[in-house]
Amino acid sequence: MTKQNQTLGLILASFLVPILIASILAYTQYTGETANLGTWIEEKQSLNTLLTPLPEANNYQWYVVYNCQECPYDQSIKNALVTLNTKQDLVCYIGKEAIETMSLSQQDIDDQTLLLADPHKQLILSYPAEQPLDLIKDLKKILKSVSK
Predict the structure, then answer these.
(1) At the top level of its lineage, which domain of life is listed (predicted)?
(2) Quick check: 61 and 119 in contact, CB under 8 A?
């Protein structure tokens, strides 16, 4: 095989190998490992249907909702959100005080669950309330690319 044919073969392989790998992964329905620590909320639900009226927020705001009666983890969640430093004002915390001034339309939300909603006000992840650091780790990953 000549040097020219080898070069052509390497160029052809560099284009065909990724296509072959992608086809195999698509055929086997490989989705990779999830990087988030929360549980995906399967049923698409808007935060607007859950709480009305929502607090005023800037254009790019993530929402953390803690629906609780006794709220044993309320202070630890607030303390954990402080660790976001300069990006903490990109997160709107809706805890007991805020929920008392709003009407909660669905009472079947677990009382010990943290909910995370995206800037489009869609609920996307839930976390156990006793593990607010999992939520914070995910928020740090999400907000990492946002310049403040």
Answers:
(1) Bacteria
(2) yes
- Those residues with Cβ within 8 angstroms of residue 129's Cβ, 6 or more apart along the chain or in another chain: 66, 68, 72, 73, 77, 112, 113, 114
Start-end of H helices in 28-143: 47-50, 74-82, 96-101, 132-143
Domain assignment of residue 11, yes or no: yes
Q: Which two tokens stand for residue 143?
A: 């907000």
CATH number for 94? 3.40.30
Residues 93 and 55 in one domain: yes
Give the model confidence (pLDDT) of 36-94 as tens digits.
Answer: 888 888 888 888 777 766 666 667 889 888 877 677 888 888 888 888 888 888 888 88
Chain-wide mean pLDDT for the chain? 81
Structure confidence at residue 15 as a pLDDT band (50, 70, 90): very high
| Residue 70 confidence (pLDDT) | 73
For residue 73, is it within any domain?
yes
**Same domain, yes or no, for 56 and 123?**
yes
- Residue 71's domain spans which residues? 39-143
φ, ψ at 125 (rounded to 5°)? -135, 150
Whether the predicted pLDDT of 14 surpasses 90: yes
Is residue 124 predicted with pLDDT exceeding 70?
Answer: yes
What's the total number of domains in the chain? 2
